[in-house]
Design goal:
The protein is mostly helical. Helices cover 77% and strands 0% of the residues. It has eleven helices and no strands.
Length: 268
């Protein structure tokens, strides 16, 4: 059993451990070829079993870390393998008559097949995730309010062309605003503040009514973590300025403003 680059899965630390795994199996085979006594073979096998346990545990931890979707299947395969080799090691230690060469063939075959058929998929998953991140960096997702603006412009054009009624426009706008303030848009606190600014621009351009803006701001306010927002500012002046802006935009209540102001003054 000899390592070559065909067994690489493009995850460096796993490839390094696989190489060492191959070496441990080769050491076990050498002990068999040298016709060492059972106790010595068992000693060599113990090193191999210990390393196998460490490697498989490391591999499973890595799969959890990256959110690998086939983790449960991998764990099942690993468990079956370890149960078999640990069982043989126990038999050897107990002086039972076994054929070490048969175990070596099982391990060598299992490891090669497992890497090629299963572990290689880990590398493929990692590569796909990298490609996805690169694509998102090159083409960041469109801000939901920007998307809303485009749709409202399209609807407005349809109204002007007498292709839909004002009531049609109002109904569709209500639906789009409902989607915007739902929890499915993935807006964090910073994106919520940006959304608020962009919505104000839509109101100025006549795509939103004042009542629309007020209603949406009330919904956005429910999702805003005020403490998290204020923690981004260093000085009391910056914090109070941000707080005043939130109050002016109706994203916080007067009660929230006064409470946060008291906290800011207390920490001076």
């Amino acid at each position: 059993m000899q390592w070559d680059d065909n067994y690489k899965i493009a995850v460096d630390f796993i490839d390094d451990q696989h190489k060492e795994w191959f070496d441990k199996v080769a050491d076990f085979n050498a002990a068999i070829d040298q016709k060492q006594v059972s106790s010595e073979i068992a000693h060599t096998l113990k090193f191999l079993v210990d390393y196998s346990q460490k490697h498989l545990a490391d591999e499973e931890a890595y799969m959890r870390e990256i959110g690998y979707p086939h983790l449960d299947q991998q764990i099942r395969h690993h468990k079956i393998f370890m149960q078999h080799v640990v069982g043989v090691l126990t038999d050897l230690k107990n002086g039972k008559d076994i054929l070490p060469a048969k175990l070596h063939n099982f391990m060598a075959t299992w490891i090669r097949q497992h890497i090629m058929e299963h572990d290689r998929q880990i590398g493929q998953f990692v590569e796909k995730q990298k490609a996805k991140r690169n694509t998102e960096e090159e083409h960041p997702p469109e801000h939901p309010v920007v998307a809303l603006q485009k749709k409202l412009k399209d609807l407005s054009a349809l109204v002007k062309a007498d292709l839909i009624t004002v009531d049609d426009f109002a109904a569709k706008k209500k639906e789009l605003l409902s989607q915007l303030v739902s929890g499915d848009t993935g807006l964090d606190d910073n994106a919520l503040l940006v959304a608020n600014e962009k919505l104000a621009m839509l109101q100025k351009r006549g795509l939103l009514e004042t009542d629309d803006l007020t209603s949406v701001r009330m919904q956005l306010a429910k999702r805003l973590d005020l403490n998290n927002v204020l923690s981004r500012y260093e000085t009391p002046k910056q914090k109070m300025g941000a707080l005043k802006g939130l109050l002016d935009d109706s994203l916080i209540t007067t009660e929230q403003f006064e409470k946060s102001k008291t906290d800011i003054l207390r920490n001076i």
